[in-house]
């Protein structure tokens, strides 16, 4: 996707390679874009301007302001003097015997130049007294509960007190339950207790004790109705006391009291998140996965700009309570996502029909499920269920009231006196299902009598064009984001004034951002052949007039031209392109022979993106061409694929043919980029970077003592990641896991192991890590004659709440791998989690401490002020922020036999971030973790038809809904397993095929 730190190899001129068809694809998921620049969070969401280095929209300063670039530069920024207390904390930690699991912070870092920063954290002041925790159970008092189940509230009560009664909970959907909670607070029994907050589900927190037993009757009234409808259901809401939440305990935790644990603090932290979100949960729209500690994103209308016909961009804010040393803080960050534009549904469908070239009947259900509408004849909101394939004039049903079969048009004219304007050119829509004769039938209504309500999120995967618009809109410079957080975020979230909830709990929030200490680490030196150094400036360097450390030898390579009917290259043009690439590789230090040109007969690719029959035929033609050539020639070292345009189906298919079926490295090039004379040298130089590393070469290395921290003993660096099926995937599609590991003493070559595994909700761990790691260790021994004495694991893609899960499940497999190789093999092991899904942003307080856009500089590290009290963690920004607000990576050492010192690991990771193989820039994520991420993405290509099924018109909701049976999911999983086969071709397994 988009790039802040892509390796832009600036060979000559100022052209910038944006990745062509070797760019990363969207992983899907619900697309939230955070207003601070940062990495793509996979199916978990997107951040503005990906900081890892992928292809993206045209370069520029999206959202840049023309005024000052430093936020609040005229206001003194003073760091609270806590050095003595911090030193005392470290001394206290030293009195505790060392533990390699979740090690305590050994000290704070000292290397680098000290700077003062502002952070998007706001100090919180709590009352002294306790809060009270309650479970909530909703039952139906006047009717037997058929098929009733023990509710989550009962489980919550049991989990938190060890006791629960036999109350059984009614089956109530999410929207109905939310409405019941809204009505509950208005009931006379609760009016004397305004200081309560709840999660609209099963938990309630109060500042005062509530009477017990407490059972609140709630008569259900639809939103928008004044009085209950005929036969309105009455629910009993039982509020049951669980325990006191000791506020003093969390204060002691922030003071560094070793008797307090993070696990003990979790109920209080999640309760505080409920309290803080009470205002936003009513004033805004909560979206995204709700984390275990209750942090969430809330969006507020109206839309800021149009994203596509019927779709607009909303601004929102993330909020989470964070305990730091000596202080409790609330972390607030700006984010953006897509909502349906409010207005008449019929008008919107007419616009969508034009934009989708007449595809409304197959409109992805994700869009349908996004819409909450109000029908003229009902007067209250209803969730849209489906868009029909017939019009109001052609759709019929049997009407008992009229005792005859009628059309939808006729029914609404006779029953409600509504004359339709579009009875033949708009589809009917369903507002629900009814049971007739044992069959579920849609309740069809004309689209034109429905209005889309404000606050209907646009779910599902955005198109590349839409995502580009979204990212450019969200890419605000740091000063703009900081001002938005303070001037708009705090009021919208109810944090900047005495809101009724916060005030009733006697909680105060400081309206000023926290001022903290940061440091800028010294930049390492980078060298090429004969250790010729190059100058690194702002995280970037130029490779002009230098050659690779070790150039690969290419004895055979092919160029395959896929002509799609729009333009036909002459053989002379193809030869010119091949010669230009050959020259670029040779200038970079590779030994490369002339290629074999393989022009294909014309392949007409349809302009319709989901015309898969055409693409299947195109891929068959390409495969046949490869196999035909292989009958008369030996396998080439690599093949260049010349394509006219980006097409993810074709790209993924060719990668599968090369990586899985034939065992041939493939590199994609877009013709319009390679024939651009201004950018050709730049573009081809980037291709040379990829080819050299794929074929076992070494592009560059670090100079001086930058590698000393890795040279103390034979060391293997490991990267681990997992990617999951997104909302647009077929239900049952497996997850893909990757393990990469170094095999050379220069830590350049990182071959990978790939596996698929069953996707389970909230499961991030690898099922076959033991066997994957054994593969990597055996290859290391093959290259070095021995196993490594130390293994450094960098684990990407896990949240803080999953640290213990990694230690319980993956650590066990790692140790089993050692034991399986030899009972006596016990290398030193360290595991570092690399977090990109955080919302911490840091703002320079002086122009000299930031770049021209106001972003902090590469090498900025923060381990004080907003970091964990006990954990060995730090934020490191290793790259330069090109567009938007730069985002650091949050590193946490969760297991450590090595006993790293703070300076050693902080500087070591920063230096190593300059070793990313296909870059002439430092990157935001340490390369082993980055490579694991890339390997996962490559694995997605092999299951493209399963991971991207949006063309089938199926929704993300249907993919994860209970309506999809386990048997159906198993069938998809088995089909995906068959498609995956044995995975990588044997000729690819010991290479960096994924680069």
TrEMBL record:
Residues 1-67, 145-169 are annotated as: Disordered. Residues 158-167 have a biased composition (Polar residues). SUPFAM superfamilies: PAZ domain (SSF101690), Ribonuclease H-like (SSF53098). It holds the Pfam family Piwi. Gene3D superfamilies: 3.40.50.2300, paz domain, Ribonuclease H-like superfamily/Ribonuclease H. Residues 147-157 have a biased composition (Basic and acidic residues). InterPro entries: ArgoL1 (IPR014811), ArgoL2 (IPR032472), Argonaute_Mid_dom (IPR032473), Argonaute_N (IPR032474), PAZ_dom (IPR003100), PAZ_dom_sf (IPR036085), Piwi (IPR003165), Piwi_ago-like (IPR045246). It comes from the Eukaryota. Residues 638-944 form the Piwi domain. One of its GO terms (molecular function) is RNA binding. Residues 19-33 have a biased composition (Low complexity). PANTHER family: EUKARYOTIC TRANSLATION INITIATION FACTOR 2C (PTHR22891). This is Piwi domain-containing protein. It comes from Amanita thiersii Skay4041.
């Amino acid at each position: 996707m988009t790039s802040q730190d892509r390796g832009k190899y600036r060979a000559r001129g100022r052209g910038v390679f944006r990745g062509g068809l070797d760019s990363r694809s969207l992983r899907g998921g619900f697309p939230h874009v955070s207003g601070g620049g940062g990495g793509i969070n996979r199916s978990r969401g997107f951040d503005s301007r990906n900081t890892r280095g992928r292809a993206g929209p045209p370069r520029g300063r999206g959202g840049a302001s023309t005024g000052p670039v430093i936020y609040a530069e005229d206001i003194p920024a003073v760091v609270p003097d806590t050095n003595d207390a911090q030193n005392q904390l470290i001394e206290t930690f030293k009195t505790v015997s060392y533990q390699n699991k979740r090690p305590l912070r050994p000290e704070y870092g000292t290397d680098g130049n000290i700077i003062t920063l502002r952070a998007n954290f706001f100090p919180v002041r709590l009352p002294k007294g306790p809060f009270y925790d309650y479970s909530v159970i909703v039952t139906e008092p006047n009717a037997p509960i058929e098929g009733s189940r023990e509710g989550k509230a009962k489980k919550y009560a049991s989990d938190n007190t060890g006791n629960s009664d036999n109350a059984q909970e009614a089956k109530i959907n999410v929207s109905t339950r939310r409405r019941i909670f809204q009505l509950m607070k208005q009931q006379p029994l609760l009016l004397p207790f305004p200081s309560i907050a709840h999660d609209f589900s099963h938990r309630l927190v109060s500042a005062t004790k509530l009477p017990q037993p407490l059972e609140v009757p709630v008569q259900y009234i639809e939103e928008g109705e004044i009085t209950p409808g005929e036969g309105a259901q009455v629910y009993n809401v039982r509020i049951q006391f669980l325990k006191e939440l000791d506020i003093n305990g969390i204060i002691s935790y922030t003071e560094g009291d070793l008797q307090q644990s993070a696990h003990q603090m979790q109920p209080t932290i999640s309760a505080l998140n409920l309290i803080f979100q009470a205002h936003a949960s009513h004033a805004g729209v909560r979206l995204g996965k709700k984390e275990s500690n209750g942090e969430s994103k809330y969006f507020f209308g109206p839309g800021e700009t149009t994203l596509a016909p019927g779709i607009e961009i909303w601004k929102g804010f993330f909020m989470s309570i964070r305990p730091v040393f000596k202080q409790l803080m609330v972390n607030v960050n700006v984010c953006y996502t897509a909502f349906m534009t409010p207005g008449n549904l019929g008008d919107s469908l007419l616009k969508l029909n034009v934009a989708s070239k007449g595809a409304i009947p197959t409109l992805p259900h994700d869009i349908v499920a996004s819409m909450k509408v109000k029908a003229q004849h009902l007067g209250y909101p209803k969730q849209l269920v489906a868009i029909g394939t017939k019009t109001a004039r052609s759709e019929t049903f049997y009407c008992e009231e009229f005792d005859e079969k009628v059309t939808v048009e006729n029914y609404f004219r006779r029953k409600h006196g509504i004359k339709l304007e579009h009875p033949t050119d708009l589809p009917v829509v369903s507002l629900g299902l009814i049971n007739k004769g044992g069959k579920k039938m849609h309740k069809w209504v004309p689209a034109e009598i429905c209005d889309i309500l404000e606050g209907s999120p646009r779910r599902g995967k955005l198109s590349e064009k839409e995502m580009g618009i979204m990212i450019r809109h969200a890419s605000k410079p740091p000063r703009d984001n900081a001002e938005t957080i303070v001037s708009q975020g705090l009021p919208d979230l109810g944090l900047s004034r005495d809101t009724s909830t916060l005030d009733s709990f006697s909680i105060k929030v400081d309206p000023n951002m926290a001022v903290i200490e940061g440091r800028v680490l010294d930049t390492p030196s980078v060298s090429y052949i004969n250790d010729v150094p190059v100058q690194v400036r702002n995280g970037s360097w130029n490779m002009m007039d230098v050659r690779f450390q070790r150039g690969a030898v290419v004895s055979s390579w092919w160029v395959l031209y896929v002509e799609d009917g729009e333009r036909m290259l002459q053989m002379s043009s193809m030869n010119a392109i091949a010669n230009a690439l050959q020259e670029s590789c040779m200038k970079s230090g590779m030994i490369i022979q002339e290629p074999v040109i393989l022009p294909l007969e014309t392949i007409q690719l349809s302009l319709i993106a989901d015309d898969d029959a055409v693409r299947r035929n195109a891929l068959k033609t390409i495969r046949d061409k490869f196999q035909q050539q292989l009958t008369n020639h030996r396998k080439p070292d690599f093949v260049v694929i010349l394509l006219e345009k980006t097409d993810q189906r074709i790209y993924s298919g060719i990668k599968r043919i090369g990586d899985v079926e034939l065992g041939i490295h493939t590199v994609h090039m877009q013709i319009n980029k390679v024939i651009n004379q201004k950018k050709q040298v730049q573009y081809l130089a980037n291709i040379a970077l990829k080819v050299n590393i794929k074929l076992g070469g070494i592009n560059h290395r670090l100079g001086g003592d930058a590698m000393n921290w890795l040279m103390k003993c034979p060391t293997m660096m490991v990267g681990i990641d997992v990617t999951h099926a997104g909302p647009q995937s077929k239900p049952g599609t497996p997850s893909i896991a990757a393990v990469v590991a170094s095999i050379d003493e220069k830590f350049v070559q990182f071959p990978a192991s790939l596996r698929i595994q069953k996707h389970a909700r909230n499961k991030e761990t690898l099922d076959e890590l033991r066997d994957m790691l054994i593969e990597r260790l055996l290859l290391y021994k093959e290259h070095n004659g021995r196993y490594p004495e130390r293994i450094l694991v960098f684990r990407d893609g896990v949240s803080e709440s999953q640290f213990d899960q990694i230690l319980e499940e993956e650590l066990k497999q790692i140790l089993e791998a050692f034991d399986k190789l030899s009972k006596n093999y016990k290398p030193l092991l360290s595991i570092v989690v690399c977090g990109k899904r955080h919302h911490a942003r840091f703002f320079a307080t002086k122009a000299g401490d930031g770049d021209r856009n106001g972003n902090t500089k590469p090498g900025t590290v923060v381990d004080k002020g907003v970091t964990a009290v006990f954990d060995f963690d730090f934020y490191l920004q290793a790259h330069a922020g090109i567009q938007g607000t730069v985002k650091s990576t949050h590193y946490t050492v969760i297991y450590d036999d090595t006993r790293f010192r703070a300076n050693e690991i902080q500087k070591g990771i920063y230096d190593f971030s300059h070793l990313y193989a296909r870059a002439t820039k430092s990157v935001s994520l340490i390369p082993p973790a980055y490579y694991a991420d890339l390997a996962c993405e490559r694995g997605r290509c092999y299951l493209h038809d399963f991971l991207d099924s949006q063309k089938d018109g199926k929704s993300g909701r249907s993919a994860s809904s209970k309506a999809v049976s386990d048997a159906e999911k198993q069938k998809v999983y088995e089909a995906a397993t068959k498609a995956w086969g044995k995975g990588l071709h044997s000729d690819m397994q010991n290479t960096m095929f994924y680069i």
